[in-house]
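User: Predict the full complex structure for these chains.
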Amino acid sequence: MAQSSRAAEHLAQIRQAAQRIGPHVRRTPLIDADVAPGLMVKPESLQRTGSFKARGAFNAVLSLVEREPRVAGVVTHSSGNHGQAVACAAQVAGLRATIVVPEGVTPAKVEGIRSFGATLVSDGVTYDNRERIAEEIARIEGLHLVHPYDDWDVIHGAGTVGLEILEDVPSAGAVVVPIGGGGQISGIALAIAALSPSTAVIGVEPVVADDAARSLHTGAMQTLATDPATLAEGVKSKSIGNRNFEVIVGDSLVSDIVTVSEDELIDALRAAWMRLKLAIEPTGALALAAYLTGRVPSGTAEHPTVIVLSGGNFDSAQVASLLV
Amino acid sequence: MAQSSRAAEHLAQIRQAAQRIGPHVRRTPLIDADVAPGLMVKPESLQRTGSFKARGAFNAVLSLVEREPRVAGVVTHSSGNHGQAVACAAQVAGLRATIVVPEGVTPAKVEGIRSFGATLVSDGVTYDNRERIAEEIARIEGLHLVHPYDDWDVIHGAGTVGLEILEDVPSAGAVVVPIGGGGQISGIALAIAALSPSTAVIGVEPVVADDAARSLHTGAMQTLATDPATLAEGVKSKSIGNRNFEVIVGDSLVSDIVTVSEDELIDALRAAWMRLKLAIEPTGALALAAYLTGRVPSGTAEHPTVIVLSGGNFDSAQVASLLV
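Assistant: Here is the predicted structure of the two-chain assembly.
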């Protein structure tokens, strides 16, 4: 399929996703910030389940039920936010859910998964083996695997963030988005490329987890050699997914990917809490860190830079230690 | 003037305030909460200067400039949020501002006041003598005193919160608001009584600062004997103002005032940060504390209870110690 007809089809799918998930997720506000006149903030921390992941999870689970009404249930692997979101969507859809979570993730995320009645699998799970374990469970138990990012339904659900940003500020100059596996940014980039090609979509990674930046800059898929030592636990995936690579690198829908240090991330987290008054998790502060360090356009009142604060499921003790 | 024609006049003034301050303050979102299906949240912590006080301050300062274009400047006394708001409004209006602040208030509030170029008077200032000191400065320096709550312009500015709540949820069953001097709740009550008399307006105080509750329940103005030992520094005023008493007690526009303990306030503060993902100050958690302890109606999807989170100018070390 030619890129232009693919683009139209993706946009149609994102609009269908918005219809499908509308009754179940929150239309988050776009907030202007005292921090700078050219800055607008999209707080997906205020989304249902505390992160943007609810959008992709509801789209994937509800689409699955439309296609396969007799499906037994779903399984996924997640550092926590996608897991909570799939558990919530499965509960709403009346499906059972099994969530594979690496040992040691934020307790609030584990509690969230349990609160939605999902089965948690965590013993012996690492960032390395989690995908394989989830695939095995899917095969043995006959469950549908909802991949956290390399899945078009998940990508199109996340793309609804892009639709909402352009509804609220059609003249946005740039939209800045964290990248882990690339689900959120590829959805947003598909929406924005189709509707507002002059708006730049820019990704942000921790400097110690810069696989997507290297993939974009080299034009070939790059992976991380080891678990990255970053506070941003939501973006620890070893590489972006194949579908995400197709959007971000293959179709060139992301104009740049920048990186921030751990200290810069902590400064941004504090700024989010103290200046924006938004209680976000470290991963959620990546785009603000890129903004505050001048690595993305500062924006103007006419063409603001929009940063996506991706999630708010923080560990209270960790954040307390960073606030003092 | 009969109560009904006074009510119409107050509503007209609140609508004028909305027009006057519209370009300068933020239209805060109304957010539904995962916490309960009948709960909606009005986060004035996201307001310009970090609290609802920007509404009253901009209305008072801009009205003053309309009436007295050659006024020399303004002075006020404040535990911090009203001071920041007046400093900001005066800077926008090109007036000089002097802010009288008790010693020991949250450093972030003092920094905020200074950041807007205002003169800070703090040495020897207490919650007891602050009003007298501000009145002296007004007299000696020929400045206009913008009272933090006992001022119709301030009350009508705060009333725009009520207009916005009813725009977003016309069928609100109850609106729950913190009370210090009574500026915010009297403005909101005037708007809601005029537009939606079936919506209850309910106040919340710390149990150790229950002067307004006692005033309402006895029908006579009650005052606190000493500085109350509460984390909610925004509601430490000794009594409500005369104009506020007229609205709250005289015209019976507030249906009840409930109280919460300090432990209940801390639980609510944690819930605001961790479940609502909103970084608020202790005073801002009063209405949530009343909700979580069942002292106000739980609301329904059709007739939700709306709680106002009044401000987000917290002390980072204090909140860190409460979050751990």
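Chain A has two domains: 3-48+151-323, 54-145.
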